[in-house]
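example protein:
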Amino acid sequence: MIAQIEGERGIAPVASTGDIEVDGIQVNSTGKTAEEARRNGWREATRQAWAKAGGPQLSDGQLEGLVSSVVIQQEQIGPRRYIATLGVIFDRTRASQFVGSGSAVGTRSQPLLMLPLLYSGGVAQMYEVRTPWQAAWARFHAGASAIDYVRPTGGGGDSLLLTAGQVTRRSRTWWRNVLDQFGASDVIVPVARLERQWPGGPVKGTFTARYGPDNRPLGTFILTAPGPEKVPAMLDEAVRRMDRIYTDALVAGTLRVNPTLNSERLALDPAIAALLAAANRVTAAQEQAVLSEGGEDVPAPTIVAAPAADAPVVFTVQFASPDARAVDAALATVRGLSGVRAAATTSLAMGGTSVMRVTYGGSLDELAAALRARGYAVTIGNGALSIRR
């Protein structure tokens, strides 16, 4: 296990701000000197970026007052010529009066756990190693996006928990445990498949935007890089297009709250519910036919409803967690109690006090009594318990 988590793993995302950023601006300018050519190129990039941002016609002096910084993605400087690919960042406070909030929708999405899956050389990779697809998402400035990305660094235990096999799981209970670890409400899986035509030749990338525990596709597109050195730029463009796909899905209402992930009582799949209802109707018809045999009408039996069980209630339980073994032991004990419907950690503090959320079909006093019977010292609070050995 140590070998699986040590080494060079994980890429921390860049610090994202709410400023308006426009990338991929290509300029080809000239001047009497190299410095003048470069200055003309930056001025032209600012005008192009402002037009892409949807801003009104402004003078160069006004635009310079709105620019926060210029990002050099690639540049070639000659004695009188400047060729570059630039990114321009406009200060939101000063530019918002001209281009609005800069977001495609009025509000941001729910927190979405982002799992960048890469297929390269016939191997599926996510956080097991540092991948160029992970690096492209780490470079992406998500502050101005309508999507609230939860981007793991991929270091430490992330490489064990968030693997390529994770996206094939369908268990809602497992997904809720994973999402609780990162404070997310749902999951999105941007998939990249790279195919190299020959060593040093073009690289074809097929990109698919997927979401949810059922791994449903939202859209797909294909990009091609002329050579290996152009792959990072292709992946950066793919990330921007992926963001637009997810934003459009948010506007269309596709990225809505998933009830099977966010409700305390998991919803049954509609297809399965229909099959169960049909089976119940057939069973009832067969029983009625048996009762009516012999030509005599036999009154249908009276069905007495069983008394309803107590509705499950969610309680908070604090417990000491000196190590991972103590966390597993506390969870196993609570889940083994009669009446407990679900138990999951909401806050982990190794060496301190962790918190779990318990769905219990009974009162808080009954839960406290059950824990005392298991050997815990229990302190009752307002809708919460504190337990210790």
Q: What stands out?
A: The chain has a mean pLDDT of 79.
